[in-house]
Design goal:
This protein is mainly beta. The chain is built from three helices and 19 strands.
């Protein structure tokens, strides 16, 4: 494929020999994906400065040596109304790039990288094409934040948060991972649409690189065609905006399958912390006595 630029459906993507990039609707966020010599490589910038430096993408199902077989670009703009929550209407506006690759060692099982660029962040997922069952142990999704970035590390359920340099994060860090890029920009790394897939924890690669990598809790089994969960990075100029934009998790998840929602009403809940039969009965009695739902 010749170098240059291509306009597809009104969406401009830059194309090199084996690379493509997609921009957010406001143009501030740019994400690129390409087939490198030994692996798939991706990068991102936000407000004209690096957000993610070159890092690896891939699954252990593949050899890692790919060739590009094409790209497709689309754009999407809509809004939807949730049944409940903080907002009466949720925007869902993004530009999407689908980059297609062929594994040179296994051409019968192509791979697609789907990238969405929002004004509020970026997301990507893998699509395993072909047909038939598969099994793999590792996902090679790397996140290479610029040098000097600090993150709030947390381990286990309800663990203590600690602010550390990204390169000091210990294995098995929980999500979401909030990152201070140190120049007035903020990011948060999390996942969405996880169904029948190990949850992603975060670890650092061995050595001084400071590159974060996906750390799955077990093997992945499925039947192609198959889509993995989304890897999502929210971006903002203020840390509070990361929370304000958490609706991207809902946008990336499957729509509700409940046709009749008339029976769903707001109510109160109680947390019973003793986890005992006695405590459970007392909790029920308390709800009855106070008219809780």
């Amino acid at each position: 494929m010749m170098s240059g630029k291509l306009l597809l459906g009104g969406l401009l993507i830059a194309i090199a020999a084996q690379a493509a990039e997609v921009r957010s609707p406001d143009g501030k966020l740019v994400v690129g994906v390409e087939a490198g010599a030994q692996t798939l490589v991706w990068r991102a910038s936000y407000q004209g400065k690096p957000l993610l430096l070159d890092a690896q993408l891939g699954l252990s199902l593949y050899s890692g040596v790919f060739r590009s077989t094409g790209q497709t670009a689309t754009k999407h703009a809509s809004a939807w109304k949730p049944l409940y929550g903080e907002r009466s209407s949720i925007p869902d506006n993004y530009n999407e790039l689908v980059a297609r690759f062929e594994d040179k060692a296994a051409p019968f099982r192509p791979l697609e990288i789907v990238v969405r660029a929002y004004n509020e962040g970026l997301a990507f997922r893998y699509r395993i094409l072909g047909a038939g069952p598969f099994l793999f142990a590792s996902e090679y999704s790397e996140f290479h934040f610029p040098k000097g970035s600090q993150a709030w590390e947390e381990h286990t359920t309800e663990g203590e948060y600690r602010k550390v340099p990204v390169e000091k994060i210990q294995p098995g860090c929980e999500r979401p991972l909030t990152v201070d890029l140190g120049d007035g920009r903020w990011a948060s790394l999390l996942e969405a649409a996880n169904t029948d897939y190990p949850r992603m924890l975060i670890s650092t690669l061995k050595g001084p690189s400071g590159v974060l990598t996906s750390d799955l809790g077990g093997p992945v089994r499925g039947v192609a065609p198959y889509a993995t969960p989304w890897r999502l990075i929210l971006v903002a100029e203020r840390p509070g905006d990361l929370l304000e934009h958490n609706y991207l998790v809902l946008n990336l998840s499957a729509p509700s399958q409940i046709a009749d929602t008339s029976w769903i009403k707001p109510g109160k809940s109680i947390r019973e912390v003793t986890l005992s039969t006695k405590g459970g009965k007392e909790c029920v009695d308390f709800a009855v006595a106070h008219g809780l739902q």
